[in-house]
C-alpha cells in the first residue's frame, strides 16, 4: 500500500466539466499544492490561470486536447497542443478519434496522435503526451490496437478514459493496457476512481498515474 504522499504523486487532480469556473480552478490548484500531487488537469481556457497558481510548486500542469470526444481534426489538435504548451502545459491529455479506430482507419488514428506528439517533441521543455483511448467504447481487439498505436506514435502514456463516456477505468482495462504497452510506458487510469482502495487497486493492476476529481477525499482517507 502506498503512503499518502506516495499516492499523491501518482494523481492528476482534475476539474474538466463544462461548469468548471475560475474559482474552481483556483481551489483545485491550492489543493494540488497543499497535497503535492503529480499534476492538475484542466481545460485549455484555464491553462494560464492554473499555471499562475502553480508557479511556486513542483505540481505539473496538464491540459486536455480534443476533449472530450476526440473528433477535432488532427491539425486542430496540434494547434490546441501548441497553445497549451505556450500557456505553460507540462503534459497533454489528448483524446483519440474513437470513430476512426472503430472503422479501422488506423492510419488516421496514428497520424492524429503523431500530430500532437510532434508538437510536444519540439517544445523547449519536456512535455509528455497521454493518449485517451476511451476504453468503454471499444472492443478488446480495438483496445489492444489503440494501445499499440499509442506506443508506436511516440506518446508517453496510454489512458483509459475521459470520465465523460459511458464508463471509466476498470482493473481489467488497466491490466490490458499495461500488458500491451509494456513496462517502459505510462498507464493512466481515470474515470470513477473515488476512494483510496480503488486507486491502489488500479496501481496494483498496472497504472502509473491516476486521474481523479475527488483527490482530497482519497488522500484524507489515508492515515
Rg of Cα set = 16 Å
Globally, the shape reads globular
Average pLDDT, rounded to a whole number, is 98
Helix content: 40-55%
The total count of helices amounts to: 10
Low-confidence stretches: none
Q: What is the total number of structural domains?
A: 1
Estimated structural class: alpha/beta
Main pleated-sheet profile: 8 strands, parallel, barrel
At CATH level 2, the architecture is: Alpha-Beta Barrel
Percent of residues in beta strands? 15-25%
CATH class: Alpha Beta
> Order of strands in the sheet with the most strands?
1-2-3-4-5-6-7-8
What separation lies between the terminal Cα atoms? 12 Å
What's the CATH superfamily, by name? Aldolase class I
CATH fold-level assignment? TIM Barrel
Series of H and E elements:
HEHEHEHEHHEHEHEHEH
**Topology, number of strands:** 8
What can you see in these coordinates?
The longest helix has 16 residues, at 106-121. The chain has an 8-stranded parallel beta barrel, surrounded by 7 helices. The N and C termini lie close together (12 Å). The protein has a single domain (4-220), classed as Aldolase class I (TIM Barrel, Alpha-Beta Barrel), CATH 3.20.20. It has helices spanning 4-8, 22-35, 47-53, 74-86, 98-103, 106-121, 140-152, 171-181, 196-205, 215-220; strands at 11-15, 39-42, 60-65, 91-95, 128-132, 157-159, 186-190, 209-212. The radius of gyration is 16 Å and the shape is globular. Helix 7 links the parallel strand 5 (128-132) and strand 6 (157-159). The chain is built from 10 helices and 8 strands.
Amino acid at each position: 500500500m502506498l503512503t499518502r504522499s506516495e499516492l499523491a504523486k501518482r494523481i492528476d487532480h482534475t476539474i474538466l466539466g463544462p461548469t468548471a469556473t475560475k474559482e474552481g480552478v483556483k481551489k483545485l490548484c491550492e489543493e494540488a499544492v497543499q497535497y503535492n500531487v503529480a499534476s492538475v488537469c484542466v481545460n485549455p481556457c484555464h491553462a494560464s490561470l492554473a499555471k499562475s497558481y502553480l508557479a511556486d510548486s513542483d505540481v505539473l500542469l496538464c491540459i486536455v486536447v480534443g476533449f472530450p470526444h476526440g473528433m477535432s481534426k488532427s491539425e486542430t489538435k496540434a494547434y490546441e497542443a501548441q497553445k497549451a504548451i505556450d500557456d505553460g502545459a507540462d503534459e497533454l491529455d489528448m483524446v483519440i478519434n474513437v470513430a476512426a479506430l472503430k472503422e479501422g482507419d488506423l492510419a488516421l488514428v496514428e497520424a492524429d496522435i503523431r500530430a500532437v506528439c510532434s508538437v510536444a517533441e519540439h517544445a523547449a521543455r519536456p512535455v509528455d503526451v497521454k493518449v485517451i483511448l476511451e476504453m468503454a467504447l471499444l472492443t478488446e481487439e480495438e483496445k489492444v490496437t489503440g494501445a499499440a498505436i499509442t506506443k508506436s506514435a511516440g506518446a508517453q502514456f496510454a489512458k483509459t478514459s475521459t470520465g465523460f463516456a459511458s464508463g471509466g477505468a476498470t482493473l481489467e482495462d488497466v491490466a490490458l493496457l499495461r500488458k500491451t504497452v509494456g513496462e517502459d510506458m505510462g498507464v493512466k487510469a481515470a474515470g470513477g476512481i473515488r476512494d483510496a482502495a480503488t486507486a491502489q487497486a488500479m496501481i496494483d493492476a498496472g497504472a502509473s498515474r491516476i486521474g481523479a476529481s475527488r483527490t482530497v477525499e482519497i488522500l484524507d482517507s489515508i492515515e
